[in-house]
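job 3f2a | input accepted
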Amino acid sequence: MPLINVKVIEGVFSEDQKADMVKSLTEAMVVIEGENMRPVTWVIVEDVKSGAWGIGGNPLTTADVQALAAGAPAG
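job 3f2a | predicted structure (75 res):
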């Protein structure tokens, strides 16, 4: 049975967006593995504390991700 584990920084995605992730990722696995796998496909969306995630040696915060999503340049 497939297990998809998605980690996101807390406060970036709404509960509705997380539900959409679960549905969309399940659909992607069903396309690959077939409809019989739907009932046994697990998707876990985990929130990681703001600042407890880093890229390139720099901590990444909720505000950083929100700025990136709004189109601000990285760094």
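job 3f2a | The beta strands are 3-9, 42-48, 53-55, 58-60.
job 3f2a | closed
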